[in-house]
Amino acid sequence: MGYDIAIIGGGIVGMATAMELSRRPGVSLAVLEAENHLGAHQTGHNSGVIHSGLYYKPGSLKARNCTEGRDAMYRFCQDHGISHEQCGKVVVATKEEEIPALNELERRGVANGIRGMKRLSREELRDYEPHAAGIEGLWVPVTGIVDYAQVTEKYAEIVQTSGGEIHTGTKVAGFEPEPNAIIVETNKGEVRCRNLINCGGLQSDRIARMAGVDPKLRIIPFRGEYYELIPERHHLVKNLIYPVPDAAFPFLGVHFTRLIHGGIEAGPNAVLAFRREGYTKSSFSLPDTKDILFYRGFWILAFKYWKTGFGEMVRSWSKRAFVKALRKLMPELRKEDLRPAGAGVRAQALEPGGFLVDDFRIIAAERMIHVLNAPSPAATASISIGRSIAAMASDRFRLS
C-alpha cells in the first residue's frame, strides 16, 4: 500500500505534524516509529515544562513557535482534558555579574510578547519562592507544567481517528527512490510513499544521509541527569526556580521543577553521551562514539569549552558537586534531600565549524522535509511546529 506521506519518528513533533496533516482532506499518511511506543526518547524523558519563550532571540523560529505553541498547548490541554497547570516560574540572579543577562532575558521576553512578567527585588523573590536565594529575580507567569507523553498519545488518537496509520516497532533501514515515489525499507518490509517527512530526533541526521541529503551537521547527544527532592523537602519549592543561563550554550542550567503528577525534580546537567539513546552513565555505542570522536566540529567545541564540559562531568559523577550547583539557588538544600531520578538525552545539532545550532532547523529536499534540530522548546512548540511543517508540505508536496 502507498501513502501520500510517510513521517519517520513518533515523538511529539512527528505526531503533531501527523495530526495537522491528517486534517487535510484526502491525504493518506503513516507514522513509522522505531520503538514499541510513541514518545520513547526526548518526548518521554523531559520534566514537562511548558516554556514561555523567554530565552530565544526575537524573530527566531524558537521564539515564534514557542510563543504560538505555548498558547496552543494550553488550549489543547484544556480542550482534551489533559492535566496541566500554568504555575509560573522565577529566574534568579544570584550575583551582580548575572544582572546584565537577566536584563537581556527581560528584554527578550518583552520582545517575544510574554504577558505579565515582573522584575523582583530580593524581598519580592521570597514572596514567590521563600527558600530561593538571589539578589534579583524575574517572575514569568505564563510558564507551566504538563505530561508530554500524555499529550503525544492524544495527538496519536486524533491522527488515527482521522484515518492516519501509526506503525510502532518499525525501524527505517534505507530508502529506494523511484520516479514518483520513495520506497522506505524497514525491519517490517517496504513502505511506499510519495513524500517523506523526517522527524527522527536523535537519528534525524542519519536518516537524512540515508535519504541522500547532506544535513551539514551532526547530532551530538547530551545526557541530562536529574535528582528528585525527597517528599519531606517538597516544601522548599513552590513551582519552578531557574538560574540565569549561560548565553553561550542552549542549556538552561540546573533548576527546580514541580511535576504535574507530583514530585520535584532538580537538574539537569548536560554531559556528553556515548550513545544516542544513552540514558545511563554506562550506556555505550561504538558507532555513536566514533561519530562523535571523528567529527571535526566536536573537537572545535571541546577545545573551546573544555572547562565547562569538565564541570558538567564532575557534577555527573559527584552528587556533592551537583548539590553545590543547586545550592546557589537554594542554600539550605542538603545532600540527603536528594535522591537519583531519571535522565534524558538531548539531540543537539552541531555544525562542522564547532557551532551548536541554536535555532530549530528544518530543510526541504525533493519530495522530502527533514527536521534536523528540534530540541527544547520543541515539545512546548509542537503544535506550532506541526502546523509549519504541514504548511511547508502542502506547498512543496502539492497536497490537495
What would CATH call the homologous superfamily of the largest domain?
A: FAD/NAD(P)-binding domain
The count of domains is 3
Distance between the ends: 19 Å
Low-pLDDT parts are none
DSSP strand content: 25-35%
According to CATH, what is the topology of the largest domain?
Answer: FAD/NAD(P)-binding domain
Secondary structure: helix percent: 25-40%
How many β-strand runs?
A: 20
Average pLDDT number: 95
- Specify the number of helices: 11
Task: Spell out the blueprint of helices and strands.
Layout: E1 2-8, H1 12-22, E2 29-32, E3 49-50, H2 61-80, E4 84-85, E5 89-93, H3 99-111, E6 118-121, H4 122-128, E7 136-140, E8 144-146, H5 148-161, E9 165-167, E10 172-178, E11 181-186, E12 189-198, H6 204-210, E13 218-229, E14 240-243, E15 255-258, E16 264-267, E17 271-272, H7 286-293, H8 296-304, H9 306-317, H10 319-327, E18 338-350, E19 361-365, E20 368-373, H11 382-396
Parallel strand pairs: 1-2, 1-12, 2-9, 5-14, 12-20
Antiparallel strand pairs: 3-8, 4-8, 5-7, 6-7, 10-11, 11-12, 13-16, 13-17, 13-18, 14-15, 15-16, 19-20
Helix pairs in contact: 1-5, 1-11, 2-11, 9-10
